[in-house]
Amino acid sequence: MFSIDLTPSNEAKKFRRAVTHKYGNATLVVSFIVLVLIAVRAVSLGRLPKPLQHPFPLFLSVSLCAFVLALLSFLETHDDYLYLTKRLGRVAASAMPALYFLSLRPSPIPRESYLRLLPLHIWLARIIICLSTLHGILYIGYWAQVGNLAKIFEWANLLGVLVALGFFLTLVVSLRYFRRHNHELFFKTHYLFAWACVPILAYHARPQIWVIVFYLAVFLVGQLTQRHFFGQVVRLSVRRISPRMNVVTLPRNLFPKYFSPGAHVRIAPTYLMSRFWFLAASHPYTIASLASDEESVRLIVKPGKRFQLSDDDECIIYGPYPSVTYDGFADSQQTAQPSRRIVVITGGVGISFAAPIVTSLRRTHSKIKLLWAARSNEDIILLKILGLGDVDVFISPEAAAEIEDTFLPEIGEPSDGKTLRAVEDESIELSSNLNTDDLDHVSRSDDFIKHRNIKVIYERMNIEEELKAFRDSVDAGLDSDNSSMCVISCGSRKLVGECSRWGKKLGAKVIEELYEI
After folding, report:
1. What parts of the sequence cross the membrane (predicted)?
2. d(Cα 469, Cα 463) in Å, to the nearest integer?
3. 3-class SS at 286?
4. In a 10 Å sphere around its CB, with 0-12 CB exposed, 13-18 middle and 19+ buried, how is residue 474 labelled?
5. How do the residues of the chain divide into helix, strand and coil, expressed in percent and rounded to 5?
6. Conformational region of residue 256, where left means phi above 0, alpha means psi within -120 to 50, and beta covers everything else
7. 452-455: long-range contacts, CB 8 A cutoff, minimum separation 24
């Protein structure tokens, strides 16, 4: 039980300050050691023992992080209430440089994706919020005990209250609802609070934390410098495919000679479009083409309500950045016995991720199947633009009904209600918004569907049945062991979750690419 010493001597206060400072430094050192270990693993990937080549599961990393910070908060507190109260605030502040480092984009760690570090950043932020909130509550309890609640309104302490309110606001706008419906609010709240924290903590913390403030400032200035100098201004070429699909074309010469399949770029408004350009949120878009494509780089974009990409817009692009899941299928290609049966399941604009992955994997693997849940018949023309064949396209009646009639092509629904496994006799008219040069001046895509072995199924995709059918349809000459089967999914949380659940039940290797802000 922690006791409260209402009349500590000057020597006791000095010793308490020294102990608090010691464990603050210990927290800073431990957090940097963890970052160094992450860097060593990333740089040494391929030369480490196989169990060490994969990062810890997120729940294990978060649990270990919470345990270490709790341990540093409770060690050597001498069962004293103020020791614990001050320690919680100091440990939370000392962990913030690591928090800022984990949010840097791109990651300063070679061969490491910022997307892989982002979940750890999110959970570390939640732990810091818990520690700092408890720090504030305990201080209020102490002032209530000594009958001096007016100390809350002293300038240094009031700054601590502002930090707590900022943490709470940041936590609220980080909820999925705000991230999806108002990404600008989510981004700007984070960015402004990250900068505001530096001077506030510098004046609030006692004893002073100038070393911590220095690291926070360095990381923020580094991120600002990266946004200012490493972005490339580009004028977009945007073509509308359907109400939910646009094709964005970027000049190939703006990109490096090689980038991994499934990589993405981030696009933000230019200086002219946003006076406060450094506060403008950048949005990620997967590159739907391969590095070997010499003419251009294509993106498949779902039009947004708050961030529209229009033809001839001037924007800033950052990247490309590798996919967080790239290691999974890259390793599958390099192993002595690669997965010989791979099924790729995607929905909507997730085809932008599936296209380069499938094209790349088909060069080295025996059997690759692509399943795509599209929104309308009109979207099928994307398969021609992306050069894809051997695709099963699922268009559910519910999805088709949601599309405005003015954008629906002239194609008849099956009169008997049965599934259509091919549409060689159906006509699909191309969108008038497309550039006919990309489509070889064709006005109907019957031949394309027939020769590319594209099957259109007018029903909702049953993932369980499709995975089992794919497993059972493997040629007799192929290894029937489920361990050689891999399920790659890309799309919404619901689709990816269902694919992973059934893939694991079938004993397949599961790779997930979640399309979610």
Report:
1. 23-44, 56-75, 81-102, 123-143, 155-178, 209-230, 342-361
2. 10
3. strand
4. middle
5. 50, 15, 35
6. beta
7. 452/383, 452/384, 452/388, 452/389, 452/390, 452/391, 453/389, 453/390, 453/391, 454/380, 454/383, 454/389, 454/390, 454/391, 454/392, 454/393, 454/423, 455/391, 455/392, 455/393, 455/420, 455/421, 455/422, 455/423
Q: Is the pLDDT of residue 112 over 50?
A: yes
DSSP codes of every residue in 94-156 = HTHHHHHHHT-SS-SSTT--HHHHHHHHHHHHHHHHHHHHHHHHHHHHHHHHTT-GGGGGSHH
Contact assessment for residue 113 and residue 321, using Cβ atoms and an 8 Å cutoff: yes
Q: How much is the pLDDT for 429?
A: 38
- The backbone torsions φ and ψ at residue 158, rounded to the nearest 5 degrees and listed phi first, read -65, -35
CB 25 within 8 A of CB 107: no
Q: How far apart are CA 264 and CA 299, in angstroms?
A: 9
pLDDT in tens, 244-264: 788 999 999 889 888 888 899
Listing DSSP states for 471-512 in one string gives HHTS-TTS---GGGEEEEEEE-HHHHHHHHHHHHHTT-EEEE
